[in-house]
């Protein structure tokens, strides 16, 4: 037991979620790019064994040498930051800084200060002048993850920066020239956000000069075992353990899983397996996959359950239709968003991911419904 606890304690020191890593990196934004900066294991897992991954790599190699902005599209956990880093490393900017930023990690009131910088006294609490992400990435690449979460007001300023190649800090009128390549990423369809009026069409086309769509892990099965072995090796080396391998039963279990959480889920499962495996062998029982994926109801029970759920939903829809009026669609949308918001424990980011829309859309709808208050 003590040995297991010791393992948990040691491994916990390396167990950072990307948002926390990036927040840690934010303290170092004005420093030159350094390999010593904290970087997730997943962001360095350059595994391209599956045919779809090889095709993806070929596209990256084709796009990277140019100076074009890049838009990366893919489900959560598919390795968008990895591809962004690979674009940077294959470009003429590889010796410059690579700055990774999650647009959903900061409040609407702070995001412009973080992006463009601030002068002392620019707003209440601005006690010192500081550079923003664009200045920090000068001569290199700025990676903006979850670009769909950027507020509309900030989108306008971002578009101007991309057009003019200069930034103006909050509280200043002096433009600062910048030389930055922008790589953006999203897990939602920005076309839908544009149609809904929550993402600027001109910015969308400015970002989408070159675009890369990432396949899900379930659609690139040839990468599952190589990735798993990569994660085993990386965590083992960080902990100073002896060689650890995955046995055949473990490999088969990994190959049969659906991977709704993609590479991130695989990394976490391997991470946990290293805590509990014995004799330096990861076996099937050490791989604690999602029970939702492993224990599906029998076909007849599933059919019965689906029929009941369908009837219940149909009854609810009939009630809304009977109310009539010109706002039927809006009422349906309200029910879906509000229910999803409660299901996600009032977390806007998780609600947006669940519904496949941007956080801006979720926030605007919740404010209109009175579920949350607008920022003043």
Verbal overview:
The protein is α/β, with parallel strands linked by helices. It has 3 domains: 15-215, P-loop containing nucleotide triphosphate hydrolases (Rossmann fold); 218-294, Helicase, Ruva Protein, domain 3 (Orthogonal Bundle), CATH 1.10.8; 326-376, Arc Repressor Mutant, subunit A (Orthogonal Bundle). It has helices at 2-12, 18-26, 51-63, 80-89, 111-116, 133-136, 152-164, 190-195, 201-207, 224-239, 248-256, 262-276, 291-294, 299-323, 328-343, 348-355, 359-369, and strands at residues 70-73, 98-102, 141-145, 166-168, 175-177, 181-186, 210-213, 245-246, 281-282. Strands 2-3-6-1-7 form a 5-stranded parallel sheet. A hairpin with a 6-residue loop joins strand 4 (166-168) and strand 5 (175-177). 32% of the residues are buried.
Summarize the structure.
With 376 residues, the protein is α/β, with parallel strands linked by helices.
**Structural class designation:** alpha/beta
What helical percentage do the residues reach?
Answer: 40-55%
Task: Characterize the largest beta sheet: strand count, sense, and whether it forms a barrel.
Answer: 5 strands, parallel
Give me the CATH architecture of the largest domain, please.
3-Layer(aba) Sandwich
Total strand count, please? Answer: 9
- Describe the strand arrangement of the main beta sheet, using strand numbers: 2-3-6-1-7
Q: Count of helices?
A: 17
Specify Rg, calculated over alpha carbons: 23 Å
Parts with pLDDT < 50 across at least 5 consecutive residues: 1-38, 293-311
Average pLDDT for all residues: 80
Shape: globular
Instruction: Kindly report the CATH topology of the largest domain.
Output: Rossmann fold
Q: For this structure, what is the CATH class of the largest domain?
A: Alpha Beta
Series of secondary-structure elements, N-terminal to C-terminal: HHHEHEHHEHEEEHHEHEHHEHHHHH
**Structural domains: how many:** 3
Strand content: 5-15%
CATH homologous superfamily designation of the largest domain:
P-loop containing nucleotide triphosphate hydrolases
How far apart lie the N and C ends? Answer: 52 Å
Keywords: ATP-binding, DNA-binding, Nucleotide-binding, Transcription, Transcription regulation
GO molecular function: ATP binding; sequence-specific DNA binding
Domain Sigma-54 factor interaction: 46-275
Protein name: Sigma54 specific transcriptional regulator, Fis family
């Amino acid at each position: 037991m003590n040995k297991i606890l010791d393992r948990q304690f040691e491994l916990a020191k390396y167990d950072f979620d990307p948002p926390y890593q990036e927040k840690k990196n934010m303290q170092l934004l004005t420093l030159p790019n350094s390999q010593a900066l904290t970087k997730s294991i997943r962001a360095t897992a350059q595994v391209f064994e599956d045919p779809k991954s090889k095709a993806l790599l070929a596209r990256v190699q084709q796009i990277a040498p140019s100076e074009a902005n890049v838009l990366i599209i893919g489900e959560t956990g598919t390795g968008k930051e990895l591809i962004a880093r690979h674009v940077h490393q294959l470009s003429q900017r590889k010796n410059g800084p690579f700055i990774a930023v999650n647009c959903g990690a900061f409040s609407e009131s702070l995001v412009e200060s973080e992006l463009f910088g601030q002068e002392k006294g620019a707003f209440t609490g601005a006690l010192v002048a500081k550079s923003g992400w664009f200045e920090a990435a000068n001569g290199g690449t700025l990676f903006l993850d979850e670009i769909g979460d950027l507020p509309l007001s900030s989108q306008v300023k971002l578009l101007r920066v991309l057009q003019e190649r200069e930034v103006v800090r909050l509280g200043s009128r002096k433009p600062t020239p910048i030389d930055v390549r922008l790589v953006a990423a999203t897990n939602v369809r920005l076309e839908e956000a544009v149609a809904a009026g929550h993402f600027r069409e001109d910015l969308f086309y400015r970002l989408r000069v070159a675009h890369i769509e990432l396949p899900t892990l379930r659609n690139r099965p040839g990468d599952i075992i190589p990735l798993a072995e990569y994660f085993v090796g990386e965590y083992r080396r960080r902990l100073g353990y002896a060689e650890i391998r995955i046995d055949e039963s473990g490999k088969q279990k990994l190959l049969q899983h659906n991977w709704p959480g993609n590479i991130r889920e695989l990394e976490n499962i391997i991470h946990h397996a290293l805590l509990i495996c014995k004799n330096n062998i990861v076996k099937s029982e050490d791989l604690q996959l999602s029970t939702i994926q492993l224990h599906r109801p029998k076909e007849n029970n599933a059919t019965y359950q689906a029929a009941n759920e369908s009837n219940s939903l149909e009854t609810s829809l009939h009630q809304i239709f009977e109310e009539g009026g010109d706002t039927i669609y809006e009422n349906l949308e309200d029910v879906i968003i509000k229910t999803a918001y409660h299901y996600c424990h009032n977390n806007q980011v998780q609600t947006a991911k669940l519904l496949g829309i941007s956080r801006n859309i979720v926030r605007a709808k919740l404010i209109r419904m009175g579920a949350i208050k607008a920022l003043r």
